[in-house]
Amino acid sequence: MPPLDPATIEERRQKKRAEREAKRKEQQQHQPPAMPIPFQRTWQTLATSSKTAQSVSVMSYNILAQALCQRELFPHAGNMLKWKTRRKMIVDEIAYYRPQLLCLQEVDNYDEFYKAAFAKLGYQTTYHRHETKRQGCMIGYLDDEWKQVGYETLDYDTDPACPATQFTGNVAQMMALTKIERDCGSHESGESPALPTTIILGNTHLYWRPPSTYERCRQGLIYHHRLWEMQKTWAANNDQSNVWPVLCGDLNTQPSDPLYALLTGQPLSEYQMVCMESTRRSFGDDDHDFEPPTDKSVAMDPAHASDAFSLDQLVAAIGPLPDQWMKSAYNHHGRYHESHVGRYKSTEPDYTIFAHVFKGTLDYILVPRPITPTQCLLLPPYEKMSPAIPNESFGSDHLSLVAQLSLPQ
Q1: Which residues touch 273 (CB under 8 Å, ≥6 apart)?
Q2: Domain range holding 313?
Q3: Which of 15, 103, 206, 349 lies at a 20 to 30 A Cα distance from 377?
Q4: What is the pLDDT of residue 296?
């Protein structure tokens, strides 16, 4: 075979290069797009921790149940509403911040996905939902840091503390967790061993319907009351003083609402009192409830709704005592956030939900006043979320709250 001339050799080389490039482009077209990565937010120091204090990190996060992902409510989300995309975003975000204690709301697909996913991250988890709901609440804790020593649930529809105005199917979890102490040689150094630390961790999702201010406040006060009851019982039964309630969740309550004022020890304004009294009744279904209907939904008999306590009776029965007043771990957030506008005339965040249908503050980590929040995870700038979330940086319509807490010994 005669040798090829240089021109023919070069022509064949170019043809092979072109074939390889075409094959590469074809492979790229058939490859799935890269999964989005959660936006990494900034930690803000709020105070210094005492050398003798116990430190714990806590997250509260409404992760948006997949059953509630309706396209008309999230017109800007596009492919971010897809289950496999969002679930990875949620787990990756939690893995990145790795809080010791975890309170999630709007959790569905728990047995199918989240239970195993969080176990791989080192979390022991407990899930609870009302029988009429497709989604519920989940508490998780790093089992090499904390040990579960008690657990209770609340059903606001049937709690005997005070009559409900309507049946909503909202629930709460309360878990007693004791810090796992490690021998660090304190006895040899002559230091006194640290006192055992127990947290009564609460997690809830209160009723969402905006007109139902009274019922939401009733639920929130029951939640606070039962959490402190569990704290007192645990402290008395175990002869332990170092027991701290931590109240987390999506309270569907803004800082300007009556429940926030009552929980934090602020006097109610005349407007808030009128709002409470005027909503002391059941509400019909004239407002569309975005919770998918179930066969077990129950309507409240109007005759029973009239049994609801007055505001004075409600506060007298289960209102916080002065030594039970709470403070928000994010109540100074506005001092450090560059985009803060003070929409609530306070330094609470301007938003913890940034959805198409509503933007505002509904989520909280509330602690007794002796506890010192030493760090919080700053909320992202507006432009990172605009026009709404979920988007390629955030897997839910709510934002996670994460705080580092210093617990007095």
Answers
A1: 258, 311
A2: 37-182+195-284+296-407
A3: 206
A4: 42
